[in-house]
Specification:
The chain is an alpha/beta fold. It has 12 helices and 14 strands. The chain has an 8-stranded parallel beta sheet with strand order 5-6-7-8-9-10-11-12.
């Protein structure tokens, strides 16, 4: 018999983390734990208000299926009873971890994946004044890939300032739906000239049809517009890449399926994260193998992390140890 427990945890952010929707000084996550008495599996999720989620609503979703878990619900059946989102992510990843702990094998061994290797992650610079972002860029100038949070009238100045602060780093930018079509049209050629490699979700998801009629001098990546495989058909002609996040897909199961389907349709792959601990990054690390862009820096933005954490060496991210996950 398998039991289910869910807890809410708060982790302090290093300073503050700011995007177009506001600032945060802490990350609130939920951890689902599945136990059969001998082995325990864990999964972490991050509720996101942008998708109508709250800590309370996600916790209730998980607790609502507790009786079915005790009655024998498995990971495959889970896909049908919970929608894509944070609640299913925590449970799905906990099922994968429990199976690994029961079998004594790593998740990649029975997920049909190659053994994971060290990845290079982007490092995110919070939205701030051009001067502050330039200083942050200087402080991280040796990192190979910097991701800039944007959304405001000074965005071109911000990118110019970061480029001056980190002249050798590759740059990608994320507007978090904060631009209009006119702003995108005027900024994208300028960003191409500054060497920006990718623009993430420039327009609100409800307005991104406009991207089909605008030149894209820099590859554009869907984030808020892409959740699971059902999202893909609408993205053709609008985006060049998709950002796979397990809190959007509803776990590792759908994330792996989405990656395969997106690649078959010709989309480039980015694997990103919400602001969470190493327990959130661990299953995403498996999905991120072979991705064109990896953005799993969540633990680097926190003041504290789990033990054992995923090991970072600068921007190099090692595969998780088995006692963390999988």
């Amino acid at each position: 018999m398998t039991s289910l427990d869910v807890t809410v945890e708060t982790w302090p952010v290093r300073g503050a983390f700011t995007i177009s929707r506001g600032s945060r000084t802490e990350a609130t996550v939920l951890v689902a734990r599945l136990s059969d008495g001998d082995a325990q599996g864990r999964g972490e999720c991050v509720p996101y208000a942008r998708y109508g989620e709250s800590v309370e609503s996600v916790k209730a979703q998980i607790e609502d299926v507790a009786d079915r878990v005790v009655s024998g619900l498995d990971r495959r059946e889970l896909q049908d009873i919970l929608p894509p989102g944070a609640a299913r992510n925590a449970l799905d990843c906990a099922f994968w971890d429990l199976e690994a702990k029961r079998s004594g094998k790593r998740v990649w061994e029975f997920a049909g994946c190659a053994e994971p290797t060290v990845l290079t992650s982007a490092y995110t610079l919070s939205l701030d004044t051009p001067q502050a972002m330039q200083q942050a860029a200087r402080d991280n100038a040796t990192r190979p890939l910097l991701k800039l949070k944007l959304a405001g009238p000074d965005d071109l100045d911000r990118v110019k300032a970061v480029r001056a602060g980190a002249p050798d780093a590759d740059l990608i930018v994320d507007a978090n739906e904060g631009w209009t079509a006119d702003v995108y049209s005027s900024l994208s050629p300028e960003l191409a000239g500054l060497g920006v490699k990718m623009i993430e979700q420039p327009l609100p998801a409800a307005e991104d049809a406009a991207l089909a009629d605008i030149k894209r001098p820099v590859p554009v990546c869907a984030d808020e517009s892409c959740h699971d495989r059902a999202s893909l058909d609408a993205l053709e002609g609008r985006y060049d890449m998709v950002n796979i996040k397990l809190d959007k897909t509803g776990g590792l199961t759908e994330a792996l399926a989405l990656k395969s389907a997106a690649e078959a349709m010709g989309f480039g792959i980015m694997v990103g994260c919400m602001l969470g601990t190493s327990l959130s990054m661990a299953p995403a690390h498996l999905v991120a193998q072979g991705a064109q862009v990896v953005d799993l820096d969540g633990p680097l933005l926190l003041a504290e992390d789990r033990e054992p954490p995923i090991r970072f060496d600068g921007s190099q991210v090692a595969p998780p140890q088995s006692d963390l996950w999988g």
